[in-house]
Write a structure and sequence with these properties.
The complex is a heterodimer of chains A (488) and B (94). With 488 residues, chain A is an alpha/beta fold. Chain A contains 15 helices and eleven strands. Chain A is globular. Chain B has a domain of 43 residues: Glu-tRNAGln amidotransferase C subunit, N-terminal domain (Histone, subunit A). Classes of the chains: A alpha/beta (488), B mainly alpha (94).
Chain lengths: 488, 94
């Protein structure tokens, strides 16, 4: 049996019955990594010895009769922008190439508490800025479905790792689509939770009012299980939401009769690959068969979301990334003779071209004389975009759209920044509104996965999981696994 | 053209980025393209709209002023490119 291809809940059954040990499972997944990693390149750092040690500790606890949760002994991966004490955390940036955090991100603390086993840290676009992992300061990750194509980004390493069986689940972060877009391209489940539902403490910041951590899993049940562990209020994150967090598995019921699903017209037609659109329409038909009430609707400010995002996110990033100056951690330029030139040389050597572009754009948008015209204007349009969603959710339980305008594209095919930015056209509005969205695979186009996006109102992750679960239980299109070239 | 090479140099200084001549030209080209694209926002009437900086209704999140554990100095300094006598060391300032 190939343990690496199973889900959390399937493996948990085997672990509880002691048919397998966490150590055997971890070994198998590490072997899988060894077998496929030279093709996929999902990991920046692999923590083999630490993983085996952690797995043995879980096995010992189980033998001792300690009560263990559903993630205990499950091998997983973290995007390399979440701090892990004593384990290198680089953000896939040369400026942090040697950074070893002195503390853990809150999500990692929670996963450790749940007994999950960390396999390593996954590759990403530098500082989470990008949609392909091509902006990684080290190397690009490849899509397990087609090695000539990108896995999506910025959390491309996490998505590819789960799709290729190199991790049972993984965490990523999503600022404008960085979980959902790679989940769509790699054919796995990806959830961007409500802003504030998962602590950002220890997540290396890109755009603080938009960033949110969430899971990559192989099915909806696993997504609910990971959400149960990672959500919750955290006093270490002042933007953490003090809400009632439910048991997300309670939403996994195969019944969506009478649920109202809106289809925003702005997410279809021009700019969307017609074959992708056809698959999404098949899913809509399926939902109707299952008793959902599907109706068209409109989010009129959708076309303004992308320019709004590319002012707000760079503005926040220009402030957040000011801390990388060669003083306290990371790279320092060697040849500087005063502090200003040390700062400026360190930053120019350490940051990649896209990061510099966003710092420049954000600094410009916040600078004297341009603040009102760009940044303040964007914040006002952001409000209109949020109001569009508020109005839609007065009528609908959830909205359904494609996750991405096309399936995974080839390396180097989006060299123009604006063409790359347009990959996130269906995902960005959700971050601006702070609401949750789930990307779920729905079949293939040209043997590459299509992603379907379910968008809900704030803290309605459960509704999205319920609809996703119903689709999964009633369609063959949602559980798809790549066949890796040259791997048995 | 929204911005000139002078603007690029000014913003690079504010950003603490020592760009090469070639990089300045590339930034000029790409930033102008992106800022042109941003023009579309001027079609939206926002005269009656409040800015939204943050989606959660949170303000002034406070905590009790109690002693809490902090990172030990060695851990804080462990990543320093250069340190001396328990301090971060930088090139001469004055």
């Amino acid at each position: 049996m190939e343990l690496f291809s199973l889900t959390i809940h399937e493996l948990q059954g085997l672990l509880v019955k002691k048919e397998i040990s966490a150590e055997e499972l971890t070994k198998q997944v590490l072997e899988r990594i060894e077998q496929v990693e030279d093709k996929i390149k999902a990991f920046v750092t692999i923590t083999k010895e630490e993983a085996l040690k952690a797995a043995r500790e879980i096995d010992q606890k189980r033998i001792n009769g300690v009560s263990l949760g559903p993630l205990a002994g499950i091998p997983m991966a973290l995007k390399d922008n979440m701090c892990t004490e004593g384990i290198k955390t680089t953000c896939s940036s040369k400026i942090l190439y040697n950074f070893i955090p002195p503390y853990n991100a809150s999500v990692y603390e929670k996963l450790l508490g749940a007994g999950s086993v960390l396999l390593g840290k996954t590759n990403m676009d530098e500082f989470a800025m990008g949609s392909s992992t091509e902006n990684s300061g080290f190397f690009a990750t490849r899509n397990p479905w087609d090695l000539n194509c990108v896995p999506g980004g910025s959390s491309g390493g996490s998505a590819a790792a789960v799709a290729a069986g190199e991790a049972i689940f993984a965490l990523g972060s999503d600022t404008g689509g960085s979980i959902r877009q790679p989940a769509a391209y790699c054919g796995v489940i990806g959830l961007k939770p409500t802003y504030g539902a998962v602590s950002r403490y220890g997540l290396i910041a890109y755009a603080s009012s938009l960033d949110q951590i969430g899971p990559f899993t192989k099915d909806v049940t696993d997504c609910a299980l990971v959400m149960n562990t990672i959500t919750g209020h955290d006093p270490f994150d002042s933007t953490s939401a003090n809400a009632d967090y439910p048991d997300y598995t309670s939403f996994l019921v195969n019944d969506i009769k009478g649920m109202r699903v809106g289809i925003p017209q702005e997410y279809f037609g021009e700019g969307i690959d017609p074959e992708v659109e056809n698959k999404i329409k098949e899913a809509i038909k399926k939902l109707e068969e299952l008793g959902a009430i599907v109706e068209e609707c409109s989010l009129p400010h959708t076309q303004y979301a992308m320019p709004t995002y590319y002012l707000i996110a760079p503005a926040e990033c220009s402030s957040n990334l000011a801390r990388y100056d060669g003083v306290r951690y990371g790279l320092r330029a060697e040849d500087a003779d005063d502090v200003l030139s040390m700062f400026s040389r360190t930053r120019n050597q350490g940051f990649g071209v896209e990061v510099k572009r966003r710092i420049m754009l954000g600094t410009y948008a916040l600078s004297s004389g341009y603040y009102d015209a760009y940044y303040l204007k964007a914040l006002k349009v952001r409000n209109l975009i949020k109001q569009d969603f508020d109005q839609a959710f007065e009528k609908f339980h959830c909205l359904l759209t494609p996750t991405t305008p096309s399936v995974a594209f080839e390396f180097g095919s989006k060299s123009d920044p604006l063409a790359m930015y347009k990959q996130d056209v269906c995902t960005i509005p959700v971050n601006l509104a702070g609401i949750p969205a789930l990307s779920l695979p729905y079949g293939l186009v040209n043997n590459k996965p299509v992603g379907l996006q379910l968008i809900g109102k704030a803290f309605a992750e459960g509704t999205l999981l319920r609809i996703g679960y119903a689709l999964e239980q009633n369609s063959q299109e949602t559980r798809i696994t790549p066949i890796l070239e040259g791997v048995k | 053209m929204k911005i000139s090479i002078k603007d690029v140099e000014h913003v690079a200084l504010l950003s603490r980025l020592e760009l090469t001549e070639e990089e300045k030209q590339e930034q000029l080209r790409e930033l102008n393209k992106i800022l042109d694209y941003m023009e579309i926002l001027n079609k939206v009437d926002t005269s009656q709209v409040e800015p939204l900086a943050h989606v959660l209704p949170l303000q002034n999140v406070l905590r009790e002023d109690e002693l809490r554990a902090t990172l030990p100095k060695e851990k804080v300094l462990q990543n320093a490119p250069e340190e001396d006598e328990g301090m971060f060391k930088v090139p001469k300032i004055v």
